[in-house]
Structure to design on (396 residues):
């Protein structure tokens, strides 16, 4: 039975499998090590949500009302009151030492002012350099104290003769309803872990392709021998990269199994499209690495260039900082990386359930990257294979 692929593809493919088998370090980088990193990242984010973040309180009021407010803050799932301090100086030192993430100051005469319909100011001090932690602590304390303040206001108004319904309308004349559409629980496994796993894979995939293509090219007549073995440049390069495509596809499937199986993350979109853009992501990353290898020519330079190109990928992904606010340089750099359209497709299909036709332009962007990087790698490989190389005697 004739194979649908050229015989040269299978020759290069089998040769690459033998090389992987003969290099335990390479085999480890293709399989066990990425899987170990997936498990390590999963263990780090296994909680899903940061809970019970330590905060301290400085209670200058010392009344039953301030103690009730402290209990309400402590009852929130996001923070827990672990220290009660005498003054703000001690609170500042506790934050600097890392004992707590925030200090809540309850002012003097808070109970008297509240019951007199004044507005005492409760202040939360937190380290906003830790953006995620600072945001969680600020939100949790604000919500708890807002609920406490509303309860006290209702109590004061009802004591003055208003009904409970009228008191509620007085303190909240315009009720605000917030309805998060996607990831309503702010589960970190659904957006942060789901972005970190492909980022790690991008680096491994591109570095693996760059390393192994560059190893061939830096050998004497390496490009010519590779093309000759494959019959032409296309089956030669395809046969060389296909083992890595299969290996990293299994790794990506393993990562998805963790997310959708163990963490029970929702999947709202098209599974067929998910498989398609996952394959394109791996193929584009391999082509990027192969292109870098054909430009660099040797393994050290190829790995260095790959690290520079893919290292900042997570920063350009728009997960921690929106891409729309990046400058042109950062926006363009991220646009050249396969990770960016892949994550956009993944968020659209996994979380949002975006219609397929809406995702097609992004899929085309990812496919274009594969074609451009693969086409440039083939062009440079052909050029290197047709270039006359000096013999070993001439080189010495």
């Amino acid at each position: 039975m004739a194979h649908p692929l050229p015989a040269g593809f299978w020759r290069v493919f089998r040769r690459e499998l033998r090389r992987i088998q003969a290099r335990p370090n390479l085999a480890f980088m293709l399989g066990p090590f990425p899987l170990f990193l997936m498990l390590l990242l999963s263990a780090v984010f296994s909680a899903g949500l940061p809970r019970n973040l330590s905060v301290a309180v400085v209670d200058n009021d010392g009344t039953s009302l301030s103690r009730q407010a402290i209990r309400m803050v402590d009852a929130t799932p996001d923070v827990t009151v672990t220290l009660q301090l005498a003054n703000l100086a001690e609170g500042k030192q506790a934050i600097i030492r890392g004992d707590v993430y925030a200090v809540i100051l309850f002012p003097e005469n808070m109970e008297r002012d509240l019951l007199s319909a004044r507005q005492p100011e409760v202040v939360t001090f937190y380290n906003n350099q830790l953006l995620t932690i600072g945001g969680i602590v600020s939100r949790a304390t604000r919500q708890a104290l807002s609920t406490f303040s509303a309860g006290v206001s209702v109590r004061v108004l009802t004591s003055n003769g208003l009904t409970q319904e009228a008191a509620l309308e007085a303190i909240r004349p315009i009720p605000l309803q917030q309805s998060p559409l996607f990831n309503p629980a702010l589960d970190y496994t659904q957006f942060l872990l789901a972005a970190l796993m492909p980022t790690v894979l991008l680096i491994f995939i591109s570095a693996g392709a760059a390393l192994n293509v560059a190893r061939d090219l830096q050998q004497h007549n390496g490009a010519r021998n590779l093309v000759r073995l494959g019959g032409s440049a296309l089956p030669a390069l395809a046969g060389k990269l296909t083992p890595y495509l299969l290996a990293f596809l299994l790794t990506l499937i393993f990562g998805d199994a963790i997310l959708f199986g163990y963490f029970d993350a929702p999947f709202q979109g098209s599974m067929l499209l998910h498989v398609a853009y996952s394959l394109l992501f791996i193929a584009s990353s391999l082509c990027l690495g192969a292109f870098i290898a054909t430009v660099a020519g040797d393994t050290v330079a190829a790995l260095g260039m790959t690290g520079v190109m893919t290292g900042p990928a997570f920063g350009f992904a728009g997960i921690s900082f929106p891409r729309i606010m990046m400058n042109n340089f950062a926006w363009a750099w991220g646009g050249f990386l396969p990770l960016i359209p892949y994550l956009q497709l993944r968020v659209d299909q996994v979380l949002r359930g975006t219609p397929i036709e809406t995702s097609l332009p992004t899929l085309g962007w990812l496919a274009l990257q594969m074609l451009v990087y693969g086409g440039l790698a083939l062009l440079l490989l052909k050029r290197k294979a047709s270039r006359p190389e000096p013999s070993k005697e001439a080189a010495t």
Notes: The longest strand covers residues 53-59. Residues 294 and 380 are 6 Å apart (CA to CA). The two ends are 48 Å apart (CA to CA).
